Amino acid sequence: MKISEYFAQLFFRIRFIKLIELRTLAVKFLAIAILADLTHMAAAQNNAADNQLLGLSLEELMDIKVTTVSRRPQKLSEVASAVFVITQDDIRRSGATNIPDALRMAPGVQVDRLGTDKWAVSIRGFTGRFANKLQVLIDGRSVYNPIFSGTMWEQQDTLMEDIERIEVIRGPAATVWGINAVNGVINIITKKAADTQGTLLTAGGGSFERGFVGARYGSKLNEDTPFRVYAKGFTRNHTNTLSGASNDDQWHSARGGFRIDHHRGNDRFTLQGDIFANAIGDTYDKSAINLPSLANNARGQNEGGNIRFRWDRTLSEQSSIMFQTYYDRVRYQMSPIVSFDTESFDVDAQHRFSVRDWHDITWGGNYRLYNSKFFNNSFVSLTPEVRTNHVYSGFIRDDMTLIPNRLYFNLGTRIDHNDFTGLEIQPSARLAWTPNAENTLWLSVSRAVRTPSRAENDAALDFLQFSNVPGLLSSLFPLKAAFHGSHTFQSEKLLAYELGYRHRFSPQASVDIAGFVNDYSELRDFSLGGFSVSTGLPRQIIASVLTNNSAAALTYGFELSGDWKPTQKWRLQGNYSFIDMRISSNSLTKNFDPSVSGADKVTPQHQISLRSNYDLSDKLDVNLWLRYVSNIAYYNLPGYVTTDAKVSYRPAKNIELYVVGQNLFSPNHQELVSDFIPSIPAVISRGVYGGIQVRF
Q1: How far apart are CA 589 and CA 527, in angstroms?
Q2: Would you say 675 and 681 are in contact if contact means Cβ atoms under 8 Å apart?
Q3: Stretch 150-174: mean pLDDT, rounded?
Q4: How far is the C-alpha of 214 from the C-alpha of 198, rounded, in Å?
């Protein structure tokens, strides 16, 4: 028995709540929502642990410090970038049980569920299972996958209660975070060990969230050394197809980890690590995969772990040193389709100092090693099977205060050297003007690159059917496609122009607007290298598909977000995102690559998110979340409207009971189709789960 299945059977085969009829529950949620909007009850004093951020004014929320933009703490109101912060209170009230679903709260972020254990997450277009223009960090640790140049979201998890905030940068951040930070950066920041003292227990289950448990214990080795340990696990139900057949298999997961913080004088040390194991399953489109041994369903597993060490020394209020290193290893086995081992090692150092009180300079260097081993088969292979890649980087950024408290200008650049394309330079310039405490106007110009992945250089894929190539040949004979990577494939490049405005109407209302024009060049494209006819029966035409950099794109759009507190107990948040994409690509293969040449038809032009958080009393709160996503033309998927609802009740200060309804507006909807391994589209269904959380 595999370790992940053992944990699943040991911990998660308990049914925590009896399922009830979902339509009736949806009506109850809506009735409670109406009550929340019309009733103003006298409230006792808020529980500080549970309602800390709802009790803050928006003025205080705007002063929350963010660190991802410049690698140093900055007030959100003064940042010259499109930044959105998802707080722990936002996560708790949303009912999200995973990081991708929590990211749906941020404007400009496209999140699509592909199955029970797979997501496509992107910022400002070019989405896909392995969206390759997005840098994802967990506590500053990159979770980039070197084979597909993206993020495998089923492997990126932690105890949701331990996340302090998620900082989402929309737009390039390559000057600070290097190659692949093209369209944005997502940094998941967990709480310090000192903020997670005591014991937390959580458990629950329902229709899709079949069962979940979590535990965390925090204490101190001594007065200067707090620590925590945690463990969690869950079983999630499979998704279905439109016909009602199973699309994949249940997902069983187990994870654990620790964090130790030590403070001595001006020095702070952190040692942190995690291990995980997942048991997963998929259903594949056998007509498109040249693998005779493939069954309709394939069961697999992935496991891995990481360990991170960080040292910070404060020299003065404007001077500090940081050193961080981490090691990460993952084994992924979706036999017999895709199996590989990856490991990465990273060393990062930076120094911050000031010059004449108006130059705040940050500079540093980075070394990263990626080692990967791919287990070849007749459908997909990488040559060589084992490869080690190195990235060397150096950066410098100068944050200049031209007029104190009014005008800020920062200029920086990063130089990276990688094994695929050699030297890459990524500069940026940003200007922020704050004429008063209520207004901020900012603009920026920046350059970023996305370096090739191993798959684009070393891979060969052998599809059975290739129906997306138009023309006479496809109408006469079935087409078989053979895809080949290219060692001449170069980095994709972006020149981005951004403009933003923040306005605080009052301590209870604010708005944030960001617009962008992105000019992409040398994007991934494909060309037909030639045709041949198979010798066996039935006869097939074999098309050779080659990788090149002949595509280009021009995208523009804007994101609007607003925050309003009509009363001390009620908070409304909303955002709207618009994007238009113009892709220039080889017409013969335009429909072959949905993540690039077909990105204009895979990216929804319009997205809307509206959230209402209402505290009926110090014990009861009601949280509603309405979302709209426009259609996905590439897969003929219609737009959808859905809503989630969470009702929380605290009978005692340290106990919370809650019920969450998911996707309540319709029985099901489809969000996207996997763009890598041909699969059957998944249906996202309505669901409900309940749970309990105890702290002591």
Answers
A1: 7
A2: no
A3: 95
A4: 14
- Which residues partner with 608 through β-bridges? 576, 628
Q: How far is CA 663 from CA 26, 296, 341, 626, 677, in A?
A: 10, 28, 36, 9, 27
What whole-number distance in Å separates Cα of residue 532 and Cα of residue 291? 20
Cis ω on the peptide bond leading into residue 384 (within 30° of 0)?
Answer: yes
Of the pLDDT bands very low, low, confident and very high (cuts 50, 70, 90), residue 48 is: very low
Contacts of 348 (CB under 8 A, 6+ apart): 140, 322, 323, 324, 325, 364, 365, 366
Query: Per the structure block, which two tokens stand in for 302?
Result: 């992935």
CA nearest neighbour of 574 among 143, 153, 104: 104
**Contact between residue 364 and residue 346 where contact means Cβ atoms under 8 Å apart:** no
pLDDT given for residue 7 in this prediction: 34
Q: Which residue has the higher pLDDT, 377 or 292?
A: 377
Yes or no: say if 175 and 413 are a contact pair by the CB < 8 Å rule.
yes
Place of tokens 């997961």: 253
Task: Return the number of other C-beta atoms located less than 10 Å from residue 477's C-beta.
Answer: 15
DSSP state string for 272-339: EEEEEEEEEEEEB-GGGB--TT--SEEEEEEEEEEEEEEEEEEEETTEEEEEEEEEEEEEEEETTTEE
Q: Give the span between the Cα atoms of 612 and 344, in whole angstroms.
A: 41
Nearest Cα residue to 66 out of 135, 122, 123, 140: 140
What Rg, from alpha-carbon coordinates, does the chain have?
A: 25
Does 560 score more than 90 pLDDT?
Answer: yes
Confidence (pLDDT) at 63: 67
pLDDT greater than 80 at residue 612: yes
Q: What is the pLDDT of residue 294?
A: 59
Its pTM stands at: 0.89
Return d(Cα 124, Cα 580) in angstroms, integer. 9
Query: How is residue 86 written in tokens?
Result: 């998802």
Does the structure show a pLDDT above 60 at 112? yes
Q: Which residue has the tokens 């007029």?
A: 403
Element (H, E) at 567: strand 541-567
Bridge partners (DSSP) of residue 131 are none
Q: What is the mean pLDDT of the chain?
A: 86
Question: pLDDT for 300-313, tens place per residue?
Answer: 889 999 999 999 99
CA dihedral 338, 137, 85, 312 (to 10 degrees): 160
Q: Are 280 and 332 in contact (CB under 8 A)?
A: no
